[in-house]
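user: can you give me the structure for this one chain? tokens are fine.
assistant: on it. calling the predictor now.
[tool input]
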Amino acid sequence: MGCWLGQVEGRSVADVLAWLATTSLSWRNSIRHVSIDVSAAYRAAIRTGLPHATVMVDHFHIVQLANKMLSMVRRRTAEIRGRRGRASDLEWKASRRRLRNREDLTGEQFATMWNTLLGEGTIGSDFD
């Protein structure tokens, strides 16, 4: 079961820990998973205030990071090739694929995307 923990004013470890201190110990101990944006301060605060909780990056920020990285690759590739991207270029195909919903991808398209990610190593290992 998922629920909204709360929203903290400020982005520092102290701000998050101060908010956590206003909650009961039994409530804090019941938290098993925390989904945050990619913020070192938030991660540090959760590691300190909820050391038993598993920290995850929320879906929105994962997609945002993927979009930024792929845009960077496309720009760099365009500079190397000396032309704009074309539909036949792999990075442009990947760009269109990542914008589609899972249910709109064929099994082959999903496998190609997923297997490429798995080939890069343990997903999420850089976050811990």
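assistant: here you go. The helical segments are 13-21, 25-30, 40-49, 59-81, 90-98, 107-119. Residues 78 and 84 are 5 Å apart (CA to CA).
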